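Input (structure):
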């Protein structure tokens, strides 16, 4: 059975690169009727924070990336890691080292002066030191030969063992280090496939040796290129939003995010938009790209605009309510009508919110430019005609509003833009809103009358 995993560190919100890694692992597991497991690598007590663990879980749930089995927390597995460290020591695959920070720093400087690659030189490798204060445990990396890795994406890659040093697997305070815990966890969790960023490739070479020392079968590795910004540097906050948390706050839909992340390094023919079921059905490792993907914010928003149009209204309503509570007083039905009216015009849920705030305002502001152009004497007849006709309306429906507008335009011999533009400015304070009949209908009779009266008083 295929078993994959995602192993974030709770030191910040879920980075979009991590979200893609989780997605690829999840898709591959589900495509093969396997399991997708979640491991929280929280051994760094100084940087790990429970709020980030919760944030990661919330972001994964938002994206629909559901894990199987219980979550594994590394902070709860110290006893197990110590058992493995003791085993490596007993089998002469590890040793104690008492080098001080000053000693290691002097070694590094000396190597740099000689033009050598800075690395630990193994000076305590065969001394047989015992456990003591300030001592660390180092893994014995083979001195000769090379480590070879058959990567499903990169092919066969290797590194000479002389390039690797004896890495620390247990710190002086007794805590285990990353490369040791990852190997132990992958063995105990039965991980068969590891899909992760190619910035981990050097770690993988080291981890291969540990798998061999522990006489355990290695997972199959797939190292994917990192996501880059438009400057072809690693995607970071200087490029814009970089976490799932941020993108949700900007009003990106989960299906939009999943679609965009899936296409950042993977493709299935010319198809560009997928349901979740299609992504699971089509996802194959041999369809991954070997080159880095460039994160295109504009393309993400274009995809989001498409899915806003195509999504169920209740899905949009859920995301709308997560981002704001301002519209609660209008009631669910009115908010649903507003979202429906705005969905074809906006590229994010946040934009729908921002573009709909005129429905809430008691009074509106009209900037000088629009005032000079539209709140003028020649348009007063339009405002007055609309006021007169609105005052006679008892029933309220979109059809009645549409008939009312048609009658006014015929009576005043106006084309739609000649009526709609000044009316829209008077009612919303801008030239951006749904169709004028929808805008009037959603604002309601009383609010329209109040705003038209206010607009008339501004005409000098």
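Output (sequence):
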């Amino acid at each position: 059975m295929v078993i994959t995993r995602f192993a974030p560190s709770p030191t910040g919100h879920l980075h979009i690169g991590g979200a893609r890694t989780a997605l690829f692992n999840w898709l591959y597991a589900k495509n093969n009727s396997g399991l997708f497991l979640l491991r929280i690598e929280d051994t760094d007590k100084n940087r790990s924070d429970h709020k980030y663990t919760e944030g990661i879980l919330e972001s994964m749930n938002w994206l629909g990336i559901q894990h199987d089995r219980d979550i594994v927390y590394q902070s709860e597995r110290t006893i197990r890691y110590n058992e493995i460290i003791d085993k490596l020591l007993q089998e002469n695959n590890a040793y104690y080292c008492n080098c001080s920070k000053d000693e290691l720093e002097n070694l590094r400087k000396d190597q740099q002066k000689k033009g050598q690659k800075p690395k630990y030189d193994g000076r305590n490798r065969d001394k047989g030191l015992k456990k003591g204060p300030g001592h660390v445990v180092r893994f014995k990396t083979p001195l000769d030969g090379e480590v070879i890795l058959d990567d499903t994406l990169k092919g066969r890659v290797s590194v000479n063992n002389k390039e690797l040093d004896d890495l620390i697997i247990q710190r002086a305070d007794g805590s285990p280090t990353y490369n040791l815990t990852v190997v132990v966890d992958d063995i105990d969790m039965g991980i068969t496939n590891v899909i992760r960023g190619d910035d981990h490739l050097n770690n993988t070479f080291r981890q291969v040796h540990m798998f061999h020392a522990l006489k355990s079968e290695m997972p199959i590795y797939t190292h994917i290129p990192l996501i880059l910004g438009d400057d072809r540097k690693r995607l970071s906050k200087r490029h814009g939003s970089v976490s799932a948390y941020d993108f949700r706050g900007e009003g990106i839909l989960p299906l939009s995010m999943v679609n965009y992340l899936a296409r950042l390094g993977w493709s299935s023919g010319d198809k560009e938009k997928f349901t979740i079921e299609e992504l699971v059905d089509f996802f194959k490792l041999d369809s991954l790209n070997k080159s880095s993907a460039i994160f295109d914010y504009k393309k993400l928003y274009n995809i989001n605009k498409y899915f806003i149009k195509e999504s169920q209204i209740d899905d949009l309503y859920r995301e709308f309510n997560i981002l704001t509570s301002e519209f609660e007083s209008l009631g669910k039905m009115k908010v649903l009508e507003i979202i429906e009216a705005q969905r074809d015009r906006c590229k994010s849920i946040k934009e729908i919110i921002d573009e709909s705030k005129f429905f809430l305002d008691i009074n509106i502001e009209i900037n000088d430019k629009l005032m000079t152009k539209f709140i003028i004497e020649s348009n007063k007849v339009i405002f007055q005609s609309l006021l007169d006709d609105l005052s006679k309306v008892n029933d309220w429906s979109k059809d009645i509003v549409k008939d009312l507008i048609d009658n006014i335009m015929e009576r005043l011999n106006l084309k739609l833009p000649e009526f709609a533009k000044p009316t829209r400015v008077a009612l919303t304070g801008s030239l951006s809103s749904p169709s004028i009949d929808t805008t009037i209908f959603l604002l309601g009779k009383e609010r329209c009358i109040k705003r038209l009266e206010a607009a008339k008083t501004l005409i000098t």
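Notes: The first helix runs from residue 16 to 31. The chain is about 45% helix and 10% strand.
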